[in-house]
Amino acid sequence: MSKIKLTFPDDSVREFDEGTTVQDVAKSISTSLGKKAVAGKLNDTLIDVERPISQDGKIEIIAGEDDEDSLKVLRNTASLVFGAAASEFKKNLHFGEKESNDDGFFVDTDDKDGQISVDELEEISAIMHKIIKNNDKVERVMMDKSELVEMFKDDPYKSSLIDAIESVQIPVYKLDGFVDFGYDAILPSMKNLKHFNLLSVAGAYWQGKSSNPMLQRIYGTAFYKEADLEADAKRRAEIKERDHRTIGRDLDLFFVDPEVGAGLPYWMPNGATIRRVIERYIIDKEVAWGYQHVYTPILMNLNAYKTSGHWEHYREDMFPPMDMGDGEMLELRPMNCPSHIQIYNHHKRSYRELPVVSPN
Fold first, then answer.
1. How open is the CA angle 167-43-175, to the nearest 5 degrees?
2. Domain boundary among 168, 198, 225
């Protein structure tokens, strides 16, 4: 049998049979590590604990419950279980993008018959607990891309995600009849997935583009220890109490109207007073520190941004130019730099004047 060489974090090198799994490597170090291992890293890439290794490389065993990678694997698994439970709860549910991170995980969903509501999270959570209690094994298999295309032909979001994958063979995970892909590593069993919460729902545009359909994003989190989950719930409650949107509403400082646009506040008298006091404080401080205030137009001829390079490099993130009807094209400024260059060039300057500090 062919051999592979694995380099450990302490730079020691050992030989193993080709096809050895991460768990086999962990057991060769100690029985307890073999039991605790939840994943591995091969050449800095996260892989499943039961995945066969067929090449030389740097190996790291992922076993710590508080380790960032361990939590990611746990939350990947929670995301997979959520998908299985949600598809049982809503038979015609479609799935978009998903992500596990240091704050938890999210899964984008869509159902033309009605999106998942926050009131339904408890029912889906109960189904998740049932799946976990059954402790069904998660199976990782390789499937032809053409098979996946056929399997998800009725889900436009999954179909789009599959089309973006270049590989002919795609790793997929099967759990209790549910099939999904796009994970780097998943726990082999449900025994460690006991402490999780489905937190909230929110709208999210497909692939982050406002021209795309609005999906329902489900947020959740998971920990290895109940105490960590409880501490996280407490932290989230404290953050919610300090949420500027809640404070703004309760104190009648400002409001945001979705019909006007997300993140565009209307300042009420109380909020306007606070804003004015802060603005005056900042201006007074800047004057005291020698800043020379200027005001520049919010619009500028498009040619100025072509000269500065903004148009060439950032046009996709800029507002479309406005045709003034006389051949002049005006652009809403993305940055102040070109305007401040105009101000600097307005007079002849001496190096003795530098630095010139002019907030806008």
1. 55
2. 225
